TrEMBL record:
Domain Flagellin N-terminal: 15-140
Keyword annotations of the record: Bacterial flagellum, Cell projection, Cilium, Flagellum, Secreted
One Pfam family it belongs to: Flagellin_N
Family: Belongs to the bacterial flagellin family.
Recorded GO CC terms: bacterial-type flagellum hook; extracellular region
SUPFAM superfamilies hit by this protein: Phase 1 flagellin
Species of provenance: Marinobacter antarcticus
Subcellular location: Bacterial flagellum; Secreted
GO molecular function: structural molecule activity
PANTHER family: FLAGELLAR HOOK-ASSOCIATED PROTEIN 3 (PTHR42792:SF1), FLAGELLIN (PTHR42792)
Record's keyword annotation contains Cytoplasm: no
Cross-referenced NCBIfam families: flagell_flgL
The protein, known as: Flagellar hook-associated protein 3 FlgL
């Protein structure tokens, strides 16, 4: 016979009631929070997996913020470049208009006046800021204004050549900025001619690249550089590259005001005395800021005198070279816009991938953590019934005593 004391009955009953009450409270918590796993002890294996899934969701959320930042920065830069192209297109239209030979000096000054306004507008675009107040075209020096006017009133680039990169997924980075030097400053310039030594008082004009293939071939695979020109005592034009190699001139005989071609570059020399020692330089591979192109154009419209042959030639060269330079600047910006489009596509693809990853991870997490309300409510009803029965049973048993039978 097993003897059971009253203390054992009380202790066992209370323990059972506490266990049933704990289960009931756990089910109530699941229903109120909507989570099947509220603490690791509810399901240790599921809790460990949920922790890893939470870390994955946190990672995805961080990268999604980076994706939004990258998209905003790239969209802002693309918008700024589109505005720059529009400004340059208007300046090009004004340049073509300025090339009209029937314009009076007042007409040219009127065109110059609008160009000055457009120049300021382009500078404002070059100094675009992002939402945090940083200049988007200043490279790494976001707090430095990209383009500032020097003492002569010319716009000068003040940033560096850095390019900011942002990680938008594990091992996936995307450039989110471009420095203004590469976009607005290092623009291929039209070929130009200048005096190295002016003896006769002549001039060189009409310089333009007419055959890119001949220009490249003339340098035997090396980078095209300046070409030195002289007119010897026999009346022939002599040409040499920067390494002292002789280049072929066609036609070789000098004739004032008549064009000739050397290494794919056409030019005209006028009013020079053969053998007098005059020398010229054809600048082939120059870079010029788009601001410098517009500034030179404005200065020429305001000051060049078309009353002399040299003045008319200089003015015509200014218009022709400015058009080439403006076209080069527009092409540079359009190429950059194309590049930005590729980056934005990569950002959008990453955004979609992260969104899909977030949905998939949330689904797995939901399966592990979320409560089945139908099952939980059924359990709650059953546990409530069991707890009530246990309480009533305990109440009756706890009143039993041998003294009642004496």
């Amino acid at each position: 016979m097993i003897r059971i004391s009253s203390q054992q009955i009380f202790s066992g009953g209370i323990n059972r009631l506490q266990e049933l009450n704990s289960n009931l409270n756990s089910t109530q918590q699941q229903i109120s929070t909507g989570k099947r796993v509220n603490k690791p002890s509810d399901d240790p294996v599921a809790a460990a997996r949920i922790l890893k899934l939470d870390q994955e969701l946190s990672r995805v959320s961080t990268y999604e913020r980076n994706v939004n930042l990258a998209d905003n920065r790239l969209s802002q830069e693309e918008s700024a470049l589109a505005g720059s192209v529009d400004v340059l297109q208007r300046i090009r239209e004004l340049t073509v208009q300025a090339g009209n030979g029937s314009l009076s000096p007042n007409d040219r000054r009127s065109i110059s006046s609008e160009m000055k306004e457009r120049l300021g507008q382009l500078a404002n675009i070059g100094n675009t800021r992002d939402a945090s107040g940083e200049y988007i075209f200043s490279g790494f020096q976001g707090s430095v204004q990209a383009f500032q006017q020097d003492d002569a009133g010319k716009y000068v680039y003040q940033g560096d050549e850095g390019q900011r990169v942002l990680e938008i997924d594990d091992g996936v980075t995307v450039p989110i900025s471009d420095n203004g030097k590469g976009i607005f400053v290092n623009v291929p310039a039209a070929a130009t001619g200048d005096y190295t030594n002016n003896v006769s008082g002549g001039f060189i004009s009409g310089v333009s690249v007419v055959n890119e293939a001949d220009l490249s071939a003339a340098y035997s695979g090396t980078f095209p550089d300046d070409i030195a020109l002289t007119v010897d005592g026999a009346g022939n034009i002599q040409a040499q590259d920067s390494q002292g190699n002789t280049l072929t001139v066609s036609p070789p005989a000098y004739e004032s005001g008549e064009p000739f071609v050397v290494a794919g570059v056409e030019a005209t020399i006028s009013d020079v005395t053969p053998g007098a020692g005059d020398s010229f330089t054809l600048k082939i591979n120059e870079k010029q800021s788009v601001f410098g192109t517009i500034e030179n154009l404005i200065a020429g419209l305001d000051s060049l005198d078309k009353g002399t042959a040299e003045g008319r030639a200089a003015y015509d060269d200014l218009i022709a070279q400015s058009l080439v330079n403006l076209d080069s600047a527009q092409e540079s910006m359009l190429l950059k816009q194309t590049e930005l489009g590729g980056r934005m596509n990569a950002v959008e693809s990453t955004r979609n991938f992260l969104a899909d990853s977030s949905v998939y991870t949330n689904e797995i997490r939901s399966q592990l953590q979320d409560v089945d309300y139908a099952e939980a409510i059924s359990n709650l009803s059953f546990q409530s019934f069991v707890l009530q029965a246990a309480q009533q049973s305990f109440a009756q048993v706890s009143q039993l005593s041998l003294f009642d039978r004496l």
